[in-house]
Design brief:
heterodimer; A: mainly alpha; MetI-like fold; 2 domains; 76% helix; 3% strand; flat; B: Rossmann fold; CBS-domain; six-stranded mixed beta sheet; four-stranded antiparallel beta sheet; 14 helices; globular; binds adenosine-5'-triphosphate; binds magnesium ion
């Protein structure tokens, strides 16, 4: 269960003149951000830090008026919250999201000197703030309208594709796009590496975690030792764990040739995977164990009374009833691994973290973004996908 | 036939059931009653080996229970519990078909059987087959529970407070249906309940337990007439005992042929209980009722004096016996 789901879903009130304070505040915040924070920045080349521009400079008065109008309309709609108004707000949010790349295009056209081939457009604080607040609005609207998890995900995917198209076709002045174009092949490769690392780590820890959880159910004594150990592993900072693995693995690679032949070495994939699996085991084992233990004793007793054998009781009753909670464990593990894998770049395992650390090293924030954004998107997709799967597998589509 | 002979069960140092001897003939309905914690459920669960007994012998159709494979034994014994124990991830049809599936019946036969049982228990197939347990009311879930227990046509049915969580009207309806079903199927039923009226109404054989022991057993009427001690007496309703006994007696057993006097105004069907007759007399302020058959044709009469006198005679004859 994600944090958002754990919040009590607010009851739907139709009392007039009773504004939705959350959305009202968020709309106000977006309006303030658009006017007060820097909209874009322009730099003559990669090294020099850019000059910030406000909204009026970037998209002129008509553009600023349009943006303000959108946010004021949202504020107005949220002051009379009805389900129709919520739907209208959803429409405005989608429209705003779709308009955002056009704002950049206009700003690029206005502000970037075409005679400087290195000149580039940076995305300003106002943009990020508005984007973030719009996502918060989406979360609130999803709760109010009782939409399933899939809705916002599909929506964001659509918006993402639209942005991608704009970026590829017209936004070549954008610093982010320039960073991307400079290392396109590397980017796709990094995404692939990232997914492969996460997939392997999660896959292995799902199998290991389930085995461990089942062993713990059988041998109660193992339970305490295993949880203590896994909890301890979780407290080691990830960088330290990568470092700790360096020496023993380097030694192994030097002294056991078959392992070296398999690609084991002090840096690279082997230590990264080991550390990722070590971190992934705790949430996986904990959720699997709890999920299996949580199944109602009465139901299991009934299964026994009906004449189901031990294996039948496990695979036909206990396991399917535990599956939703177990998948929550996979979800937590996967999202955590997607983040941790970024750190693995430091020990040469590749992945999207490479851009983050290179960017940090070169003080090129747009390159950091190039690594961070896909990580965020990947995490969101996995989170929503596995969450929806867990929901779908609830007994009889329950809850 | 189920036979328990000096059966005891200990959980650690606690004795849950002590020296129980009980015979339930084939096709009989046996009700276990007693205060909470007296070992009723434990007794029931020892029969299908959910709990292994500590000492004594349990026989099923003359064979010691240890000689059966517990899994196969359980598939031969229907089991219904208060919370229904339905599998939340399976729909109604799948829940009902469980034991036949475990017994590897062919799929078509399972379907036929499931539909037949849903019909018997008043669950329209089209409406309920694909519903999940959480979409059912308590009464509907309990019907599914009973259908599931009956699915493989077991000879024996163990029911642990099956109607305990239902409202009085639904409960009475299900009791009536169970009575009808039993009249048709003649299962050997062991039934645990806290509701004395339910026990008296349904049982052929009533077993009163206290602190793991059987205090008294016999037909409901025998227990009502001669409770062994004050505990049984209070359990059977104390002062209300007379009315409970009247509830077990049919009007037709106490009616006399139509006399020469003017027939009484109030009419009562012959298969109603004496309790209902008494209630009608109180309501209509009369001491005589005209007994009618199903076609509302008078066939006799019932008088208060006679009921009271015969009750007294019953008691005297029993004391002599
Ligand atoms: N698995 C068990 N382990 C230990 N003690 C148990 C177990 N099952 C039952 N007991 C004990 O055995 C005694 C009888 O329990 P049982 O469940 O048979 O009572 P009951 O007559 O069915 O009560 P109720 O009417 O409340 O259902 C109780 O004291 C109970 O605490
Ligand atoms: Mg009980």
């Amino acid at each position: 269960m994600s944090l958002i789901d754990a919040l009590p879903s607010p009851s739907f009130k139709r009392r007039p003149w009773h504004p939705n304070v959350v959305l009202l505040c968020l709309s106000g915040a977006m309006l303030a951000a658009a006017w007060l924070l820097s909209f874009v920045s322009v730099a003559p080349n990669r090294i020099v830090s850019g000059t910030a521009f406000g909204m009026v400079d970037a998209i002129s008065w008509p553009g600023a008026a349009l943006v303000s109008l959108l946010f004021i309309a949202m504020a107005a709609l949220s002051s009379v919250p009805t389900s129709r108004h919520y739907r209208a707000m959803l429409g405005i949010i989608i429209l705003t999201l779709l308009l955002m790349p056009f704002g950049l295009m206009v700003a690029g056209h206005w502000l970037v000197d075409p005679s400087l081939p290195q000149a580039r457009l940076g995305i300003g604080a106002a943009y990020w703030t508005v984007l973030f607040v719009l996502l918060l609005c989406l979360v609130e609207l999803r709760l109010r309208l009782g939409l399933s998890r899939w809705w916002p995900t599909l929506l964001l995917a659509g918006v993402g594709i639209a942005w991608w198209g704009c970026a590829a076709l017209w936004l070549d002045r954008l610093a982010l796009v320039q960073e991307f174009q400079a290392r396109e092949g590397q980017f796709y490769q990094a995404i692939g590496q990232h997914i492969a690392l996460v997939g392997t780590a999660v896959g292995v820890s799902v199998v290991l975690g389930m085995l461990l959880a089942m062993l713990m159910r059988r041998y109660q004594r193992l339970q305490k030792i295993a949880f203590t150990l896994l909890n301890f592993l979780q407290t080691i900072p990830s960088l330290a764990l990568f470092g700790l693995l360096l020496a023993p693995l380097a030694w192994l690679a030097a002294n056991v040739p078959p392992l070296a032949a398999l690609g084991v070495s002090g840096i690279g994939n082997a230590p990264a995977l080991i550390a990722l699996i070590a971190y992934s085991l705790l949430p996986m084992v904990r959720n699997t164990y709890i999920a299996l233990e949580e199944v109602s004793a009465e139901t299991l007793q009934a299964a026994k009374a009906m004449g189901m054998r031990t294996g039948q009781r496990f695979w036909q009753v206990r396991f399917p009833l535990a599956l939703p909670v177990l998948l929550e464990g996979v979800r937590i593990t996967a999202v955590q691994a997607i983040g941790l894998t970024a750190v693995a770049a430091l020990i040469g395992a590749g992945g999207l973290g490479t851009f983050i650390f290179q960017g940090l090293g070169q003080a090129a924030m747009d390159m950091v973004l190039l690594g961070a954004m896909p990580i965020l998107i990947l995490a969101l997709i996995v989170d929503a996908g596995l969450g929806a799967l867990a929901d779908a597998l609830r007994p009889g589509g329950q809850e | 036939m189920i036979e328990l002979s000096h059966v005891s069960k200990q959980f650690g140092d606690d004795i849950a059931v002590e020296d129980i001897t009980l015979r339930i003939a084939k096709g009989k309905f046996c009700a276990l009653v007693g205060t909470s914690g007296c070992g009723k459920s434990t007794t029931l669960r020892m029969i299908n080996r959910l709990i292994e007994h500590s000492s004594g012998d349990i026989f099923l159709d003359g064979q010691a229970i240890e000689q059966y494979d517990p899994v196969k034994l359980r598939r031969r014994i229907g089991y219904v519990i208060q919370s229904t124990g339905l599998f939340p991830h399976w729909n109604v049809a799948r829940n009902i078909g469980l034991v036949p599936r475990l017994l590897k019946w062919p799929a078509t036969e399972i379907n036929t059987r499931v539909e037949e049982l849903m019909g018997v228990l008043g669950l329209p197939v089209g409406e309920f087959a694909h519903k999940y347990p959480h979409q059912l009311s308590g009464g509907q879930a309990q019907r599914v529970g009973v259908a599931r227990a009956l699915a493989a046509d077991p000879d024996i049915l163990l029911m642990d407070e099956p109607f305990g969580a239902l409202d009085p009207i639904t409960r009475e309806k299900l009791q009536d249906e169970l009575a009808k079903l039993q009249a048709r199927l003649h299962k050997t039923i062991v039934f645990v309940t806290h509701d004395m009226d339910e026990a008296l109404k349904l049982a052929d054989h009533l077993v009163v337990m206290r602190d793991g022991r059987i205090v008294q057993q016999g037909t409901p009427l025998a227990l009502l007439q001669q409770p062994a001690d004050p505990f049984v007496e209070s359990l059977l309703g104390g002062l209300e005992r007379g009315l409970k006994q009247a509830a077990l007696t049919r009007v037709k057993d106490h009616m006399t042929s139509l006399g020469p006097s003017w027939p009484a105004q109030s009419r009562i069907p012959a298969d109603f209980s004496l309790r209902q007759a008494l209630s009608m007399m109180l309501r209509d302020h009369c001491d005589r009722l005209t007994v009618v058959d199903q076609g509302d044709v008078p066939i006799g009469e019932l008088s208060l004096r006679r009921i009271v006198k015969e009750a007294q005679l019953d008691k005297v004859s029993q004391r002599d016996a």
